[in-house]
Automatic annotation (TrEMBL):
Sorted UniProt keywords: Cell membrane, Membrane, Transmembrane, Transmembrane helix, Transport
Gene Ontology, cellular component aspect: plasma membrane
Gene name of the encoded protein: sugA_2
GO biological process: transmembrane transport
Family recorded in the similarity comment: Belongs to the binding-protein-dependent transport system permease family. CysTW subfamily.
Transmembrane parts of this sequence: 21-40, 78-97, 109-130, 156-179, 204-225, 260-280
Pfam families: BPD_transp_1
Membrane topology designation: Multi-pass membrane protein
Source organism of the structure: Pararobbsia alpina
Domain ABC transmembrane type-1: residue ranges: 72-279
Official protein name in the record: Trehalose transport system permease protein SugA
Length: 296
């Protein structure tokens, strides 16, 4: 009996230890070194005060300073419309190009170009194209379509256009990957039962796309919320486009107050987490999988 229990215990220990789990070690080390440790260090640093205040002094200063806390609203006014435009605009384009064709490859290749350029190069091109003496204003005046001054740079609209140019390809590629993953025979089967194209989209494609659209919206929002180069090069960093990342930059590299900059960064991440959690909870509330029967 003793030998039997010993052999059984050895087999259980061998079953618990999987040598393949050792393959996760490099990934876990990279996760700790690149994400967990910097985040923990930033949280600890944000709880220190450069002027010797309390633990929450930096956060209290942020939410009581009239030049800091409004940056959250300014950033949301840019990130939310950009996210809606990118995701809702990418949906019909991806749906129209869901079938493999030369047009799909051509459009995908053209949309990848802004992703490879980067925000700084896009902003520089926009200054040349949309500036007061750029091609776009001159074309409008030359064609007598608009006679007043065209201001699409160094204001809110310049930053928003930049976020759409840089974020739309990203959202389109995400939505396209979800759309092409849906079996087209489902829509064809619904068509044989008399479903119109709109009913096919509403009852088949949209429920199956809901999780993918939510994830695309979350990623697009996080990308737009972290706007920094566009807000400086194309906006008014001391006025309407003074986003929260600019406030963190000023605290760190102009005031050399790294604890305050860390606190602003933590607030920035917390706001993003709240919005993303809200979008995910809305998806769970309104989506429970595609309907298979019952009253519609």
């Amino acid at each position: 009996m003793a030998s039997l229990s010993g052999s059984t215990g050895g087999r259980l220990r061998a079953a618990r230890f999987d040598p393949k789990a050792m393959l996760l070690t490099p990934a876990l080390l990279a996760l700790v070194a690149l994400f967990i440790y910097p985040f923990a260090y930033g949280v600890v640093l944000s709880l220190r005060s450069a002027d010797g205040g309390g633990v929450w002094a930096n956060y209290a200063h942020f939410f009581t300073d009239a030049t800091m806390w409004p940056t959250i609203l300014v950033t949301l006014k840019l990130a939310v419309p950009a996210t809606l435009i990118n995701v809702l605009g990418a949906l019909p384009v991806a749906f129209a190009l869901r079938r493999h064709s030369p047009y799909q490859k051509l459009v995908t290749a053209l949309l990848v170009i802004p992703v490879t350029l980067g925000t700084v190069l896009i902003a520089d091109g926009m200054l040349t194209y949309f500036g007061p003496n750029g091609w776009f204003p001159q074309a409008l005046h030359g064609l007598h379509l608009y006679h007043d001054e065209v201001r699409l740079t160094h204001n809110y609209w310049g930053v928003l256009i930049s976020l759409v140019i840089s974020g739309f390809p990203f959202a389109f590629l995400l939505v396209l990957s979800y759309v092409t993953g849906i079996d087209p025979t489902l829509a064809r089967a619904a068509a044989t039962l008399g479903a119109s194209p709109w009913e096919q989209f509403r009852r088949i494609y949209l429920p199956l796309l809901a999780p993918g659209l939510t994830m695309a919206a979350c990623l697009s929002f996080v990308q737009a919320f972290s706007v920094f180069p566009s807000a400086i090069l194309l906006g008014a960093p001391a006025g309407r486009t003074r986003v929260i990342s600019i406030a963190a930059y000023e605290a760190a590299f102009e005031n050399y107050d790294y604890p305050m900059a860390s606190a602003i960064a933590i607030v920035m991440g917390f706001v993003q987490l709240l919005i993303v959690a809200g979008m995910l909870s809305m998806r769970r509330a309104f989506y429970s999988g595609p309907t298979t029967g019952g009253k519609g």
